[in-house]
Design a protein that fits this description.
Layout: E1 12-20, H1 26-34, H2 42-47, E2 54-60, E3 63-69, H3 77-84, E4 89-95, H4 102-113, E5 119-124, H5 131-145, E6 155-157, H6 166-179, E7 190-192, E8 195-199, E9 203-209, E10 214-216, E11 220-224, E12 228-237, E13 240-242, E14 244-246, E15 250-255, E16 268-270, E17 278-287, E18 294-295, E19 299-304, E20 307-315, E21 320-321, E22 326-337, E23 344-349, E24 355-363, H7 374-385, H8 388-398, E25 403-404, H9 405-412, H10 416-428, E26 433-436, E27 441-443, H11 445-465, E28 472-473, H12 474-480, H13 487-499, E29 503-506, E30 509-512, H14 521-537, H15 544-549, H16 555-567, E31 571-575, E32 578-581, H17 582-599, E33 602-604, H18 605-612, H19 616-628, E34 632-635, E35 638-641
Parallel strand pairs: 1-3, 1-4, 4-5, 5-6
Antiparallel strand pairs: 2-3, 7-16, 8-9, 9-15, 10-14, 11-12, 11-16, 12-13, 12-15, 17-22, 17-24, 18-21, 19-20, 19-23, 20-22, 23-24, 25-27, 26-27, 28-30, 29-30, 31-32, 33-35, 34-35
Length: 642
């Protein structure tokens, strides 16, 4: 992390990964190209093999190339996988004196599974063989890459010892690097960590390939898993300190306020508060033709980016996967990993540990599924093959509770501006329903229509079973909806039904619009009788059970008729045990008015008892009711008539 140096003009950053068998000259070739030997560990230098990842840099014209030199020995393939995740191009190295060997095939399979689409082939150690042997190796190589992404790629003969072919390698690298698509510097920050160490004078430093976004000094990032927020002290890339690093660069990040022991390979520096590690993913899984039959429930080694864990594979539409085949699957990871849709991964057999396949992440926030669920399979196929609009519409339809902006970002990796632009198009085409604009919540039109029908059916069912009640409480209605929906979605559906003139809402009560309570002649007579008894009693407070008993209908209907009279305000509830007819209260108001004119506004409690003709048991609740209505005001032990 040296002082900031002047950077040459760079229009593109490209990561090139070496691949090939042990001792085929990968590190020597990188040193011949860059002047830097990538082996950084004493053991590597002593043994002459690359054990861990090595890095070196080369600038050709305006293209800066970062080399990730990965181990070739079978025991170190896991380290190779840690470096392969950010590779744009592969430099496949085949020694002229040995030809294609087992790790050549395994490395090449890994590159194919990781979706690397460009590269060149270097036939090394040409100084050690005759031309006939070289021609034979070149023919073998062309046959080996036929039908792959390297078919038709440059094949360059080179000797790191004599320098023959080094210029041709550089020219081929520049040409292919210019053709390679660049990574998204405007996206969310994501840097999988492949190394963490302490640098004297600087403290904790992590390295990795910045696969998305832009990093700047003093920027805040989040370390995942774990969620610790960290500040970037400084950045290092391409051999010197820089003020900014963009997607596609090998980057060293000097972090503040964290010890190296808190960081391990497989963690990720990411945009704060955006993403969440996952341990359940839906994928398209592919087996190599050389692999064994894979049964559902098999445990495998899972590698993505710099992360490695164990995963249990559950095939979603079949019980076993044959070599060379592909299937939709759910993978349960032993520990959480930060993943995005579209991430490529590698699977290795649990034991013995050999590469057996790989695939691509379709849904990084997957739910537990039932096997052979047609709706799940259709959803994943849309995620796999659809464009952005189709994917977003599928995500909106997938969750019965609706999907919010934060979940959309976490499940797609897209920017907020991208999502809002797509939503605008889909909403105009009526392919999504906007539940809420702020915060943004979406669902599908079909789900919203289903919810509207379910709410209507719930109201109708309540009315049919409760003809004497005006409507159903909101919370009770929500509980009648077959699928549990989010509160915001439920509210939006109610608002829509009100706007359509299909329901009315009064306080907490929801009912069909223009609904009238239809009483039978018997019920109408009983209702009138209950009201008449309360009216006749005046302020004498009739015994409610006795009144209901005399109504000549069953007890349940009598209680509902009583509630109906209360809702109609024919009866007024003073307390739970004290009900009065409205005419009794009107008469009381007249008595208070007359009292004030004759004797003044002050009203002692004994005077009120005498005026109303009630005992103290009912006088106090009545006075408190009059206080609430603004007809009286308490002043010590008296009331003031207002």
């Amino acid at each position: 992390m040296e002082d900031l140096a002047t950077d040459e003009l760079v229009s593109k950053h490209v990561i090139v990964g070496t691949a090939g068998h042990i001792d085929h000259g990968k590190s020597a070739l990188v040193e011949a190209l860059t002047g830097t030997h990538p082996d950084r560990l004493e053991e590597e230098k002593r043994r002459g093999i690359t054990i861990d990842l090595g890095f070196a840099f080369l600038q050709i014209d305006d293209v800066r190339i970062g080399f990730v030199d990965v181990p070739g020995h079978e025991r170190f393939v896991r380290n190779m996988l840690a470096g392969a995740g950010g590779i744009d191009l592969v430099l496949l190295v085949i020694a002229a004196d040995e030809g294609i060997k087992p790790q050549t095939r395994e490395h090449f399979d890994i590159c194919r599974m990781l979706g690397i689409s460009r590269g060149i082939v270097a036939i090394t150690k040409t100084d050690l063989v005759e031309q006939d042997t070289l021609d034979l190796v070149k023919l073998e190589t062309e046959e080996f890459v036929r039908g792959s992404f390297l078919e038709g790629a440059p094949v360059v003969e080179v000797s790191s010892k004599t320098g023959a072919g080094i210029g041709e390698i550089k020219a081929a690298l520049l040409r292919v690097a210019r053709e390679a698509p660049g990574k998204d510097a405007s996206g969310h920050v994501r840097l999988p960590i492949d190394r963490a160490f302490v640098m004297k004078g600087f403290g904790t430093v992590v390295t990795g390939t910045l696969i998305s976004g832009t990093l700047r000094a003093e920027q805040e990032v989040e370390l995942l898993p774990g969620g610790k927020r960290l500040r970037i002290r400084g950045l290092h890339s391409g051999g010197h300190a820089v003020g900014e690093a963009t997607a596609g660069q090998r980057t060293a990040v000097n972090l503040a306020d964290i010890e190296t022991g808190e960081i391990e390979r497989g963690m990720v520096l990411a945009a704060p508060g955006v993403f969440h590690p996952t341990n359940r993913i839906d994928v398209r899984l592919t087996l190599l033709s050389s692999a064994r039959l894979l049964k559902s429930g098999t445990r495998v080694h899972f590698h993505q980016g710099t992360a490695e864990t164990i995963a249990t594979v559950s095939l979603l539409n079949q019980e076993q996967l044959r070599p060379g085949g592909a299937a939709l699957a759910q993978m349960l990871l032993d520990r959480p990993v930060l993943l995005w849709p579209g991430d490529c991964f590698i699977t290795r057999q649990f034991s013995p540990v050999v590469t057996v396949g790989g695939g691509v992440v379709l849904d990084a926030r997957a739910r537990r599924h039932k096997k052979r669920d047609a709706s799940v399979l259709a959803f994943l196929e849309t995620i796999e093959r659809g464009d952005q609009e189709e994917i977003l519409a599928a995500l909106a339809a997938e969750d019965a509770r609706g999907v919010d902006l934060a979940k959309l970002i976490a499940r797609t990796g897209w920017l907020e501006s991208e999502i809002r632009g797509i939503v605008k198009k889909l909403a105009a085409a009526k392919q999504v329903s906007i539940v809420s604009k702020e915060p943004l919540i979406l669902t599908s039109p079909a789900r919203m229509d289903d919810l509207l029908r379910a709410i209507g059916a719930g109201i109708d069912e309540f009315h049919a079973k409760n003809p004497l009640l005006p409507g159903i409480a909101r919370q009770d209605l929500r509980g009648r909806v077959p699928e549990k929906v989010g509160l915001e979605m439920f509210r939006t559906a109610l608002d829509e039904l009100v706007a359509q003139g299909k329901i009315t809402i009064s306080g907490d009560i929801v009912q069909r619009a223009n609904r009238q309570i239809a009483l039978t002649p018997e019920e109408a007579k009983a209702k009138e009788q209950i009201a008449r008894e309360f009216e006749r009693a005046g302020l004498a407070v009739p015994a409610v059970p006795e009144v209901l008993k005399n109504a000549h209908v069953d007890a349940a209907r009598a209680r509902k008729l009583l509630q109906l009279l209360i809702r109609e305000k024919t009866l007024v509830k003073i307390t739970e045990d004290l009900l009065l007819h409205r005419t009794a209260l009107e008469n009381l108001h007249s008595l208070l008015t007359a009292y004030k004119k004759q004797r003044g506004a002050k009203l002692p409690i004994p005077a009120f008892k005498e005026l109303a003709g009630v005992s103290r048991k009912y006088a106090i609740p009545l006075l408190e009711y009059l206080d609430r209505q603004g007809l009286t005001r308490r002043a010590g032990d008296e009331r003031v008539i207002l």
